[in-house]
Design a protein that fits this description.
Layout (H helix, E strand, L loop, with lengths): L2 H20 L5 E9 L7 E10 L3 E7 L3 E12 L2 E6 L3 E3 L4 E4 L5 E7 L8 E10 L4 E11 L25
Parallel strand pairs: 1-10
Antiparallel strand pairs: 1-2, 2-7, 2-8, 3-6, 3-9, 4-5, 4-8, 9-10
Length: about 170
């Protein structure tokens, strides 16, 4: 093989390997993502989705340029009172769907910079961490809706409308 053929073969191999690496499956399958529409004067809203990790991971953060603050939250009963709180991470077991829905685990977008209009989309970045501490990000465009899309649990509102931020405890 001459040097030109060798160079072409090396280049083609690099392109094929780069292409395969670039198309590696995302570490998490995201389904049914949506954010609840807001109205003027409302400073916070929720975002919801179903996450299925391909390996054990933890959701450790969320970011969105539409919000001054974005956090992972849970709602659960404390005696006979439903309480909401920020959590530092949400475990995502391998192969098991984890629902982020109203009334349960969800993403909170607070200090909204402008109302979120139904029919628009908002950029959201999920921050994931594996067992070795390596962080990965998933950037996505989340549709804004008034209610959950068909097939996704809509759950109770539990303060995801106006006044939600008043019930918040940190």
């Amino acid at each position: 093989m001459n040097s030109f053929s060798h160079s072409v073969l090396t280049l083609l191999s690099s392109v094929v390997l780069s292409s395969a690496w670039a198309q590696a499956p995302a570490p998490v399958v995201v389904e049914g993502a949506w954010a609840r529409a807001s109205v003027a004067g409302q400073s916070g809203t929720g975002a919801f989705m179903r996450l299925t990790a391909r390996e054990p991971l933890a959701l450790v953060g969320v970011r969105s340029p539409v919000a001054g603050v974005a956090e992972i939250h849970e709602m659960k009963m404390d005696g006979d009172v439903m309480r909401m709180r920020a959590i530092p991470q949400l475990p995502l077991p391998s192969g098991q769907a984890v629902e982020l829905r109203p009334g349960g685990y969800h993403l909170m977008l607070m200090n909204l910079k402008a109302p979120l209009s139904a029919g628009s989309q908002v950029p959201v970045t999920l921050v994931l961490r594996d067992a070795q501490g390596t962080e990965r990000r998933i950037d996505m465009q989340v549709p804004v809706m008034v209610r959950a899309p068909a097939g996704m649990a809509s759950g109770p509102m539990h303060g995801h409308g106006q006044g939600h931020e008043k019930s918040h405890r940190h």
